[in-house]
Design a protein that fits this description.
Blueprint lengths: L1 H13 L29 H56 L2 H4 L3 H10 L23 H8 L7 E5 H4 L4 H10 L5 E6 L11 H10 L2 E7 L16 E5 L7 E2 L9 E11 L5 E2 L7 E10 H10 L5 E8 L23 E6 L4 H7 L7 E6 L9 H11 L5 E5 L8 H7 L4 E3 L1
Parallel strand pairs: 1-2, 2-3, 3-4, 4-6, 5-7, 6-8, 8-9, 9-10, 10-11, 11-12, 12-13
Helix pairs in contact: 10-11
Length: about 425
């Protein structure tokens, strides 16, 4: 009833003559005169009377507008109070609906934990945030908190800043990893500290035991002596990214589970393997990404990785001036029977010499990217000899940024039945 009464109160002013359209006001005899028209002097008193009338009408309208503004302020105050009350009721409704929701009342803890795992951020290494999973799950209710804390896999992934770990966030990181219990860990460590004084960060002391529990470790920053001296039996994927320091990778302890390695340094050239010590023979997947990778080093890696199936290398330097570095490997160490997919980013000319040095009988997919588009011709003769010599079941050939290969596509399709070519 209160709502109907308010409508009635609003309807009454709408019918007031004060709101009649201006177009219905009675026009005066001067309404059609231009402002610049001449008006006889005997008509001036009549015009003054019209001016007085209009001022009176404006004053009446201003009074009504003022009253309406005052009423609007009161209505806005009422509206704000109603919205506040509605928000409280909405929150209460959501709370009680959540209390009776199937997820809280009927789902077993094991199933709820699996659902929580699907809510984790889509990244291999979770950065702690109170507004994202898994931390936000611990603030919903006691039951959800208990389930989250008893699901170790929720806490098995973490991105760590050594600088933060050495100051305010060290305990937070440690408590996070402790919740994972004995589950294999995926950890990314960002080494963003200045170690010019030669002192090891305090954070590394408590971090080392967790590193030995890693199945996936990404070290991002300068190398630390003896980082992986402890047992890393469960390590299956290892990635290292250096920027300003000399590249140094060493895993002295046994890593029987290691199958994937990523080596990155966009500011460092890889001319030999003297600074890299890995169990190459175990790898199934390898990604090498440097400013330059010498062709000799690449061939040496191919010879060492006797089980690798997927290889990506960037940016390989096969300059014609350095082709002599291929000679030691033309007869030995260039045959690999396991590689199924090879992706190569080529920096300079000389790809043909690389094809001449390689034999890959198991190759199914080959991706070649030229860093300089159409600067060097596609080595058709050498590639054809490589494919014939390898006798590989090549299904995909992708050549980026080199249009000179287009003229040879028909020949490749005839030579390799079932091949799909993308140029």
């Amino acid at each position: 009833m209160a709502g109907l009464d308010l409508n009635d109160l609003l309807d009454e002013p709408l019918m007031s003559p004060i709101l009649e359209p201006l177009s219905e006001l009675t026009p005066t005899s001067f309404s059609y005169h231009r402002p610049t028209s001449h008006v006889p002097s005997d008509k001036v008193p009549t015009i003054h009377a019209v001016v007085t009338q209009r001022k009176s009408q404006l004053a009446a309208l201003d009074d009504h507008i003022g009253l309406l503004n005052h009423a609007l302020e009161k209505l806005q105050g009422i509206q704000a109070r109603l919205k506040e009350k509605r928000a409280i009721l909405q929150e209460s409704l959501a709370f009680h609906e959540a209390l009776a929701s199937p997820a809280r009342c009927w789902l077993p803890s094991e199933l709820l934990g699996e659902i929580f795992l699907r809510c984790l951020p889509q990244t291999n290494y979770v950065t702690p945030s109170p507004d994202e999973c898994p931390m936000v799950l611990t603030r919903v209710c006691r039951h959800w908190r208990a389930v989250a804390l008893s699901t170790p896999r929720l806490w098995a992934s973490l991105s760590i800043s050594l600088l933060r770990a050495n100051t305010t966030s060290g305990d937070e990181y440690k408590r996070w990893l402790e919740k994972a219990r004995s589950v294999p860990l995926s950890i990314r460590v960002v080494h963003d500290m200045d170690l010019s004084d030669g002192k090891e960060p305090v954070s590394l002391q408590w971090l080392r035991p967790f590193l030995s529990q890693c199945s996936d470790l990404w070290w991002h920053g300068p190398p630390v002596q003896g980082l992986l001296d402890n047992s890393v039996q469960s390590l299956s994927r290892f990635q290292v990214t250096f920027h300003k320091a000399n590249f140094l990778v060493s895993i002295p302890s046994p890593t029987p589970q290691l199958r994937s390695a990523v080596l990155q340094s966009l500011t460092y050239d890889l001319h030999s393997l003297r600074s890299v010590d890995l169990p190459w023979h175990q790898l199934l997947e390898l990604k090498i990404q440097f400013a330059l990778v010498s062709s000799a080093t690449f061939l040496q890696v191919i010879g060492l990785c006797t089980q690798v199936q997927r290889v990506s290398v960037s940016s390989i330097c096969v300059d014609a001036l350095s082709q002599t570095d291929l000679q030691p490997f033309t007869l030995i160490g260039t045959v690999n029977y396991s590689i199924r997919r090879l992706e190569v980013n080529v920096m300079r000319a000389g790809l043909g010499s690389l094809f001449e040095a390689l034999t890959l009988p198991a190759l199914e997919e080959l991706v070649i990217r030229f860093c300089s588009p159409d600067r060097y011709p596609w080595p058709h003769k050498q590639f054809s000899a490589f494919a014939t010599r390898s006798k590989c079941p090549l299904k995909w050939l992708t050549i980026h940024r080199n249009k000179s290969a287009e003229s040879h596509v028909a020949e490749y399709l005839k030579m390799l039945p079932g091949l799909k070519v993308v140029v």
